[in-house]
């Protein structure tokens, strides 16, 4: 198969740059933005050799996995642009649900997979990390903001030894290709990007995200540098911050950090 856009993405004016192999789809997207590419453009590959996740961690996609990035150039502030990551999570979760249901229909007697969104940027399957999202933004000509949302999904293989146990679609019994997943993702993106509407629709995105959120009401610990916050995952606020309810009843907003739930909370944040 080859990477293609579906009818929704095509009619909405999205473009596609596909690669047999590339260092980083995010890096390529940002280089294009600096050179004047205004998007909206998808960048996709089944083999990424120099990608990165949050905190500059390596994110290598071996052949068969999906590394994809969407470039959107917008007139929004960086703070508003940051909330686009929640629309990305919803888009991927929607695509995965669609493909999982279709795969389930072909495998009689199996239960549909359970997907969830883990703050701030992971998509889980059966409580294991299936995908990660990295959002980057940079000012470009015309006082506009180039926003690149990278979405890396474990299709055929998952890394070992990660802080959160990882899995792949293949390991979960969902036999789909990266190209098929990409097409479903790009179609779902049109819907949730439209709801987000340059930040004006984040209230609805927040509602939809919370309906699919992992760990609401559970014990949580967040490690940010040398600072540790523990409590219960209460909600996310209207800027996308994680709200933790501490033992003394305070509601603390968290903008970034390593997040651990349940029994991992005491281990990971120790």
Automatic annotation (TrEMBL):
State its Enzyme Commission number(s). 6.3.4.15
Keyword annotations: ATP-binding, Biotin, Ligase, Nucleotide-binding
Give me the reactions it catalyses. Answer: biotin + L-lysyl-[protein] + ATP = N(6)-biotinyl-L-lysyl-[protein] + AMP + diphosphate + H(+)
The organism of origin for this protein:
Bradyrhizobium valentinum
Keyword Nucleotide-binding on this protein? yes
| Keyword Nucleotide-binding recorded | yes
> Can you give the residue ranges of the BPL/LPL catalytic domain?
1-197
GO (cellular component) term, any one: cytoplasm
- Entry protein name: biotin--[biotin carboxyl-carrier protein] ligase
| Pfam assignment, any one | BPL_C
Top-level taxon of origin: Bacteria
Matching InterPro entries, A to Z?
aa-tRNA-synth_II/BPL/LPL, Biotin_CoA_COase_ligase, BPL_C, BPL_LPL_catalytic, Transcriptional_repressor_C
User: Which PANTHER family does its entry note?
Assistant: BIOTIN PROTEIN LIGASE, BIOTIN--PROTEIN LIGASE
Please tell me which top-level EC class this enzyme sits in: ligase
Q: GO molecular-function annotation terms?
A: ATP binding; biotin--[biotin carboxyl-carrier protein] ligase activity
């Amino acid at each position: 198969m080859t990477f293609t856009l579906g009818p929704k993405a095509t009619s909405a004016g999205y473009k596609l740059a596909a690669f047999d192999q590339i260092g980083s789809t995010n890096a390529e997207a940002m280089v294009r933005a600096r050179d004047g590419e205004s998007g909206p453009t998808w960048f996709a590959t089944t083999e990424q050799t120099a990608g990165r996740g949050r905190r500059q961690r390596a994110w290598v996609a071996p052949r068969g996995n999906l590394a994809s990035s969407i470039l959107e150039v917008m007139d929004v502030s960086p703070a508003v642009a940051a909330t686009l990551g929640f629309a990305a999570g919803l888009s991927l979760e929607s695509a995965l649900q669609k493909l999982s249901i279709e795969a389930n229909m072909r495998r009689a007697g199996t239960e549909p997979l359970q997907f969830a969104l883990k703050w701030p940027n992971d998509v889980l399957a059966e409580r294991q990390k299936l995908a990660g999202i990295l959002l980057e933004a940079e000012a470009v000509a015309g006082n506009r903001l180039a926003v690149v949302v990278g979405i890396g999904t474990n299709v055929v293989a998952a890394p070992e030894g990660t802080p959160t146990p990882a899995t792949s679609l293949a390991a979960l019994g969902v036999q789909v290709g990266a190209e098929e997943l990409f097409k479903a993702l790009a179609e779902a993106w049109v819907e949730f990007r439209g709801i987000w509407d340059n930040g004006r629709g984040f209230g609805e995105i927040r509602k939809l995200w919370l309906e699919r959120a992992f760990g609401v009401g559970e014990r949580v610990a967040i490690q940010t540098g040398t600072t540790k916050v523990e409590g219960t995952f209460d909600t996310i606020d209207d800027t996308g911050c994680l709200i933790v309810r501490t033992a003394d009843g305070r509601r603390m907003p968290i903008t970034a950090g390593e997040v651990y739930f349940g029994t991992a909370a005491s281990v990971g944040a120790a």
